[in-house]
Amino acid sequence: MKKNNSFVFQGSKLKLARELKLWTISKLGEKLGVSHQLISDWENNKKKPTFEKLIEIEKLLGFPRRFYYSTAENIAPDNELLFFRKGAAVAVKYQKQVEQSGILFSIVASIVENYVNLPSFSYPSYSLRSKEFSQIDFEKISKIAISLREEYNLGIGPISNMTLLVEKMGIRVHFEDLSSAKIDALTLFVNGQPYIIINNQRISSVRIRFNLAHELGHILLHSSYNRTEISNSSNNKRIEMEANYFAGSLLLPEEGFVLDLTATNMNHLLQLKKHWKVSLQAIIFNGDQSGLISSRQTLFLRQQISRNKWRLHEPFDDEIPIEYPTLFNKAIQYVKNEKPDCMKEIVSEVGLSEEQIFDLFKYEEDKFAVNTNNHLKLI
């Protein structure tokens, strides 16, 4: 993370705070009683707000004044490469909100990493690094998923904690309650470091696990593409299909799944859902794709799902625990407990209060007590 060593106003941080609140330039201008052009000039560092206007901005947007002057420099994602997992027709303001959420997370996380040794990410030998789009064979994708399982000694059974796996790989994960339930996830890269933002607003654990596996697929399969390649509608459709296939192959490896698929009736599949922690619809889809469930039985099962109104909310969705990120929760608490002076430095560099930083990482003092197995070390 670059540092802005001079104490100057950073307009990009005003834009970040505004877009997180889902406000347009015009709305902020109306609230402050200034023109659209003046807000634009502030955000583009052509002018800077007066002290009086900064006081108003602080109250309106919820960020302390020092945040806009903090030494941590706001950075755009590498090559503007973003992978959105979202429904159709999502308003641009919601896409900007999740992007800014990811950028804020990357700003704070990169500063915390200056004080604590955390797992670093590097592309495994089996990842694909092609810069030009081309369709990836599904069999090849399946082999990449198997290679990942082998590297982390996952065997052929269920992955116990998908979030923990991704964090162990050195990928930074953040859960956020986003305003639009149509956006499931976002992956962005800052200085080569991948960050995954997951929307956990009213979303089941099985859906979150699949979303994480899907985003991991983008990182391993598509992260060398440029934005133009993934913005092409036909390319994007194929890229999303490939990420979905990777997620299914990783979460439900055929070699292990076939051993458990001893029956294809709904009751048995629901038991498999609890065991594999994958949605009923994903189990049926994978069973159909691999030929383990007949086309006729697949149709019958999907009709049952429709009749029971399970498409959006399945049985056991509320019983399978959500696997929250823990890496930065533990890192923050470790710094606070072991060397509080470092915590003060983090607060100063980020420009947020200690409470705001804890809230960003879903800090819970009792839940994330430090122990000797954290593998965290002060630098």
UniProtKB/TrEMBL annotation:
Drop me one GO molecular function for this one: DNA binding
Q: Please name the InterPro entries in this protein's record.
A: Cro/C1-type_HTH (IPR001387), IrrE_HExxH (IPR010359), Lambda_DNA-bd_dom_sf (IPR010982), Rad_response_metalloprotease (IPR052345)
Question: Transmembrane stretches, by residue range?
Answer: none
Pfam families the record matches: HTH_3, Peptidase_M78
Q: Which residues form the HTH cro/C1-type domain?
A: 14-67
- What protein family is recorded? Belongs to the short-chain fatty acyl-CoA assimilation regulator (ScfR) family.
Name by which UniProt lists this protein: ImmA/IrrE family metallo-endopeptidase
